[in-house]
């Protein structure tokens, strides 16, 4: 589905999977609702509008699966729960970073660390790394990459908008350079944690 | 063979295979590769090391290094899979290169053969007890694995009892199995843990610290109140003192030990000893 978005973006700027029925009179996306999910409160419900949420979960899951050594834990499921405290732009990249830190904290064996970096391209072609929500809304393309820590290889990319091939390569190079800062931050925060003991 | 690989690795920003010796005691992250001592001698500074040509090119004298928790073999090198401090233990009797492992802090226990753990009996089905040890599967414990147990003389174990035993089978492919006797058939402290007392959970790193041979915490706690204490490598501690209040105080101290420095601990102990 990500490949579809990649090629489709060259033809027309569109967000989402484009498969939701938007008839002439009704311009609402697909709904899904679940009730009574939580046992403690008296009532709870979950409402899903559009399919953006599911695709973000799938992207994070695929990135984690590429990095976690699942062969050491057969017949076991590893659940990652991400709770959005505040969304100030670059949400997917932030979720990826949080998932990586959580997996390290849990002691799940991994073959590398990973991080997420978001780039936004505005109408002039200027590249902005780690855009705010305002910059994301005004950009003509937003690209999120997940990179691994060993050789800065690309693990996952999720793109939305209109961009050329050279711009993609530029964004990827900028993201790889930026990932160094993220990994350095991981190292510092983990060293701080272990220095307390 | 190893040299061009290390040159290529050096050119990649930040990812360099370092010699394990130089990283001892430091925090290592998943994805790092470590060189064993034998390999870095072969590479040398600049690679121009003169070695006598051997007719049997493949057989270099390899030092046998044991790869402990948190490390995996990756070709000729060690790949770090968990975050923590790298440790090394010299071999006792001279053969081999010792053990390398990563000291990580985690809460989740993964059953390992030979570990002594505290389990809670959750079910009794026929001749087998199912014991919850905190892993992904309950361990099985046969009723004959107690000291002096025979088919006629069954041990008195009920659902909900605490068991202190060790794993005889614990790998990723099979359900873990535990027993409460050692290889000679004696209990050696294992079996059903008595009445009363308190079971609580701590991190695995704290248990290893408390079980280290020269741990001051246990000596200080022992001077405070008379107590019975059982440590399970699965992060569970059972403690029992004369009164419930003392038991709770001891449980709180042990849980807090993780975050306290030794000075703070000594302060708390002296304050408790006075009251």
UniProtKB/TrEMBL annotation, chain A:
Q: Which GO terms describe its cellular component?
A: cytoplasmic exosome (RNase complex); nuclear exosome (RNase complex); nucleolus
This protein's source sits in the domain of life called: Eukaryota
Q: Which GO terms describe its biological process?
A: nuclear mRNA surveillance; poly(A)-dependent snoRNA 3'-end processing; rRNA catabolic process; rRNA processing; U4 snRNA 3'-end processing
User: What InterPro entries does the entry give?
Assistant: ExoRNase_PH_dom1 (IPR001247), ExoRNase_PH_dom2 (IPR015847), ExoRNase_PH_dom2_sf (IPR036345), PNPase/RNase_PH_dom_sf (IPR027408), Ribosomal_Su5_D2-typ_SF (IPR020568), RNase_PH (IPR050080)
The entry's keywords: Exosome, Nucleus, rRNA processing
Identify a single GO molecular function assigned to this protein: RNA binding
Q: In which compartments does the protein localize?
A: Nucleus
**Occurrences of domain Exoribonuclease phosphorolytic (ranges):** 54-109, 113-177
Where would one find coiled-coil regions in this protein? none
Keyword Nucleus listed: yes
Q: Where is this region: Disordered?
A: 1-23
Instruction: Report the Pfam families cross-referenced here.
Output: RNase_PH (PF01138), RNase_PH_C (PF03725)
| Residue stretches of biased makeup (Basic and acidic residues) | 1-13
Q: Which family does it belong to?
A: Belongs to the RNase PH family.
* Protein name, as recorded: Exosome component 5
From TrEMBL, chain B:
Q: Enumerate the Gene Ontology biological process terms.
A: CUT catabolic process; DNA deamination; exonucleolytic trimming to generate mature 3'-end of 5.8S rRNA from tricistronic rRNA transcript (SSU-rRNA, 5.8S rRNA, LSU-rRNA); isotype switching; nuclear polyadenylation-dependent rRNA catabolic process; nuclear-transcribed mRNA catabolic process; poly(A)-dependent snoRNA 3'-end processing; positive regulation of isotype switching
Reading the lineage from the top rank, the first entry is Eukaryota
Give the similarity note.
Answer: Belongs to the RRP40 family.
Query: How is the subunit organization of this protein annotated in UniProt?
Result: Component of the RNA exosome core complex (Exo-9), composed of EXOSC1, EXOSC2, EXOSC3, EXOSC4, EXOSC5, EXOSC6, EXOSC7, EXOSC8 and EXOSC9; within the complex interacts with EXOSC5 and EXOSC9. The catalytically inactive RNA exosome core complex (Exo-9) associates with the catalytic subunit EXOSC10/RRP6. Exo-9 may associate with DIS3 to form the nucleolar exosome complex, or DIS3L to form the cytoplasmic exosome complex. Exo-9 is formed by a hexameric base ring consisting of the heterodimers EXOSC4-EXOSC9, EXOSC5-EXOSC8 and EXOSC6-EXOSC7, and a cap ring consisting of EXOSC1, EXOSC2 and EXOSC3.
InterPro entries in the record, alphabetically?
Exosome_RNA_bind1/RRP40/RRP4, KH_dom_type_1, KH_dom_type_1_sf, NA-bd_OB-fold, RRP40_KH-I, RRP40_N, Rrp40_S1
Q: Any idea where the K Homology domain is?
A: 197-244
Q: What is the lineage of its organism?
A: Eukaryota, Metazoa, Chordata, Craniata, Vertebrata
Q: What is this protein called?
A: Exosome complex component RRP40
Q: Which GO terms describe its cellular component?
A: cytoplasmic exosome (RNase complex); cytosol; euchromatin; nuclear exosome (RNase complex); nucleolus; nucleoplasm
Its Gene Ontology molecular function terms?
exonuclease activity; RNA binding
UniProt keyword list? Acetylation, Cytoplasm, Exonuclease, Exosome, Hydrolase, Isopeptide bond, Nuclease, Nucleus, RNA-binding, rRNA processing, Ubl conjugation
Q: What is its main location?
A: cytoplasm
Location(s), subcellular: Cytoplasm; Nucleus, Nucleolus
User: For the Exosome complex component RRP40 N-terminal domain, which residue ranges apply?
Assistant: 26-105
The record lists the organism as Pan troglodytes (Chimpanzee)
């Amino acid at each position: 589905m990500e490949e579809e978005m990649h090629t489709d973006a060259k033809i027309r700027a569109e967000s989402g999977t484009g498969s939701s029925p938007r008839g002439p009179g009704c311009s609402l996306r697909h709904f899904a609702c679940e009730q009574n999910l939580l046992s403690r409160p008296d009532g709870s419900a979950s409402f899903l509008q559009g399919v953006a949420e599911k695709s973000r979960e799938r992207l994070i899951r695929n990135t984690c699966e590429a990095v976690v050594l699942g062969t050491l834990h057969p017949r076991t499921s590893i659940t990652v729960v991400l709770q959005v405290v505040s969304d100030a732009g670059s949400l997917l990249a932030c979720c990826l970073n949080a998932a990586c830190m959580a997996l390290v904290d849990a002691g799940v064996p991994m073959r590398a660390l990973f991080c997420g970096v978001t780039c936004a391209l505005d109408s002039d072609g200027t590249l902005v790394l780690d855009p705010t929500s305002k910059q994301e809304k005004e950009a003509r393309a937003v690209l999120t990459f997940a990179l691994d820590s060993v050789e800065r290889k690309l693990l996952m990319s999720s793109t939305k908008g209109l961009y050329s091939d050279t711009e993609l390569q530029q964004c990827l190079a900028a993201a790889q350079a930026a990932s160094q800062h993220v990994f350095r931050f991981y190292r510092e925060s983990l060293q701080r944690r272990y220095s307390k003991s | 063979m190893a040299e061009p690989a290390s040159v290529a690795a050096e050119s990649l920003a930040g990812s360099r295979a370092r010699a394990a010796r130089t990283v001892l005691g430091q925090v290592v992250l998943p994805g790092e590769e470590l060189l064993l001592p034998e390999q870095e001698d072969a590479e040398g500074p600049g690679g121009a090391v003169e070695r006598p040509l051997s007719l049997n090119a493949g057989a270099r004298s390899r030092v046998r290094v044991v790869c402990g928790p948190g490390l995996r073999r990756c070709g000729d090198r060690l790949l770090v899979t968990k975050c923590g401090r790298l440790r090394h233990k010299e071999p006792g009797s001279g053969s081999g290169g010792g053990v390398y492992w990563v000291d990580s802090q985690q809460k989740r226990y993964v059953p390992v053969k030979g570990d002594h753990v505290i389990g809670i009996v959750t079910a009794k089905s026929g001749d087998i007890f199912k014991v919850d040890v905190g892993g992904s599967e309950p361990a099985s414990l046969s009723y004959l694995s107690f000291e002096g147990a025979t088919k006629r003389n069954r041990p008195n174990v009920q659902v909900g009892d605490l068991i202190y035993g060790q794993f005889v089978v614990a790998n990723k492919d099979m359900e873990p199995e535990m027993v409460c006797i050692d290889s000679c058939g004696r209990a050696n402290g294992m079996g059903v843990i008595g009445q009363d007392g308190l079971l609580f959970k701590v991190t695995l790193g704290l248990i290893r610290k408390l079980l280290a041979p020269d741990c001051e915490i246990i000596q200080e706690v022992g001077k405070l109140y008379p107590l019975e204490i059982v440590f399970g490598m699965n992060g569970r501690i059972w403690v029992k003192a004369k009164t419930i209040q003392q038991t709770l105080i001891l449980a709180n101290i042990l849980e807090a030990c993780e975050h306290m420095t030794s000075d703070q601990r000594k302060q708390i102990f002296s304050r408790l000893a006075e009251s």
